[in-house]
Specification:
71 residues; 2 helices; alpha+beta
Length: 71
């Protein structure tokens, strides 16, 4: 289904939660919108996710996965 943005007037698919043109949140109830995000549930899944996203090495980011550096 198509909806019209109340801010900029563009017509877009209702599968978007925000207007793709101006970013305005849809005022219409959008039942078709679902966040399709799979979250890593284990340390191993998080490591795989980190590699898949091509994120920088831990020496650059200081983001340590599976290592305890607490004092």
């Amino acid at each position: 289904m198509k909806i019209k943005c109340k801010k900029c007037g563009i017509i877009y698919d209702d599968s978007y939660y925000f207007c793709p043109n101006c970013g305005e949140k849809s005022n219409d109830v959008n039942y078709n919108y679902t966040k399709n995000i799979s979250k890593p549930k284990t340390i191993e899944e998080l490591k795989e996710w980190y590699i898949q996203k091509n994120l920088p090495d831990e020496n650059v980011t200081r983001f340590f996965i599976g290592k305890n550096y607490s004092t």
